[in-house]
Amino acid sequence: MGGNIRIAIAGVGNCASSLVQGIQFYRERRDCEPVGLMHLDLGGYRPEDIEVVAAFDIDSRKVGRDLAKAVFAEPNCTEPFQRDLPETGVLVQMGPVLDGFAPHMAEHPKRRRCVPSDQTELSQPEVVQILRESGAEMLVNYLPVGSEAATRFYAECALEAGIGFINNIPVFIASDPVWAMRFEERGLPVIGDDIKSQLGATIVHRMLTDLFRRRGVRIDRTYQLNTGGNSDFLNMLDRKRLSSKKISKTEAVQSVAASRIEDDNIHVGPSDYVPWQNDNKVCFIRMEGTMFGEVPMNLELRLSVEDSPNSAGVAIDAIRCCRLALDRGQAGPLHAPAACFCKHPPRQYTDDEAYRLTEAFINGWVHRVENEDKSVDAGHKVPGSAL
Ligand SMILES: NC(=O)c1ccc[n+]([C@@H]2O[C@H](COP(=O)([O-])OP(=O)(O)OC[C@H]3O[C@@H](n4cnc5c(N)ncnc54)[C@H](O)[C@@H]3O)[C@@H](O)[C@H]2O)c1
């Protein structure tokens, strides 16, 4: 196996920047022992096998530029770890704006927010044609939170072009039964929704929640507060755009709790925009519980990470799993990779189970995964999950 994996990207923001940098970073370290990856080789594919063949954005500083330059254009602010990127020959194209630009952004300095281009927006047939002509095998969605219409637009384009779809954002596609069925019927794989980070707030909060469950400690109250200074956090100041993000992040924790935590007793979400933090995200978790003899306890944790590279390695694995599914003719939502890599998958598993099932998927034990899915359905259901 091996060979190029051709992807298209919608939204050339900080996350796409880290992904593009990461592909080059690991290409240049081909012969060293690489640090920071969950899988160097995944089913015969390495990170440097990924090639971006088409990209769409709406920002005047990105549209019309080579992808290698656009990923460093304002308002992208993630700290570069691979400054030298060879020209790709891929020019960022002007997608339709739809709801990708939040009006409150206009009140903030241009260097901090999206500045929509006045170039003519591509129509759906034009985007589909670009996807087809580029040879893209899957479309990776990196639009801002709240881009419901724009995400549906790109999902339609993927269906029309006959390519896979990886939905990294909290708009429900893979976890929406109607969309999932449409991908299945079209014979195409879909992974989503809302990518997890390598070591981010969600995975840490979930592991701790699972630990409380295993150790018999009842969770009485918990919060997860997040601050950051990138355009994703600026965009999320508009609370109306946040409803699916909040559901996605909250359900990621609820789904591994021993029993559902009352709504008033769990608060998980982006909490404030602090411009000087740029792409540094700081997360504060507090968990209050009751242990042996009904004795109370509490835990406080602070996590500081560069937000965008934190999810790029996970995206690299999701892309390679999508390619494996294409190689194998597997269609519809990829349950194990979705549960492993995303906060709001169609089926929630504990992280241990999701990891185990994903390794089985990668190794091609497809039938075993299907059987395991059934056994999970039959009795080993994760408490509170939506299997
Ligand atoms: N660790 C992480 O950073 C992480 C984790 C989970 C989910 N996500 C999600 O991934 C998404 C991308 O995050 P980011 O930090 O790169 O955000 P960003 O704001 O840096 O990038 C979004 C990009 O989309 C572009 N865009 C807006 N509307 C568009 C349209 N209609 N068509 C094409 N492009 C459009 C913007 O101009 C911008 O370049 C967000 O929804 C974020 O919540 C990120």
UniProtKB/TrEMBL annotation:
<feature type="domain" description="Myo-inositol-1-phosphate synthase GAPDH-like">
    <location>
        <begin position="200"/>
        <end position="308"/>
    </location>
</feature>
<dbReference type="InterPro" id="IPR013021">
    <property type="entry name" value="Myo-inos-1-P_Synthase_GAPDH"/>
</dbReference>
<dbReference type="GO" id="GO:0004512">
    <property type="term" value="F:inositol-3-phosphate synthase activity"/>
</dbReference>
<dbReference type="InterPro" id="IPR002587">
    <property type="entry name" value="Myo-inos-1-P_Synthase"/>
</dbReference>
<comment type="similarity">
    <text>Belongs to the myo-inositol 1-phosphate synthase family.</text>
</comment>
<dbReference type="Pfam" id="PF01658">
    <property type="entry name" value="Inos-1-P_synth"/>
</dbReference>
<protein>
    <submittedName>
        <fullName>Myo-inositol-1-phosphate synthase</fullName>
    </submittedName>
</protein>
<dbReference type="InterPro" id="IPR036291">
    <property type="entry name" value="NAD(P)-bd_dom_sf"/>
</dbReference>
<dbReference type="InterPro" id="IPR052199">
    <property type="entry name" value="MIPS"/>
</dbReference>
<dbReference type="GO" id="GO:0008654">
    <property type="term" value="P:phospholipid biosynthetic process"/>
</dbReference>
<dbReference type="GO" id="GO:0006021">
    <property type="term" value="P:inositol biosynthetic process"/>
</dbReference>
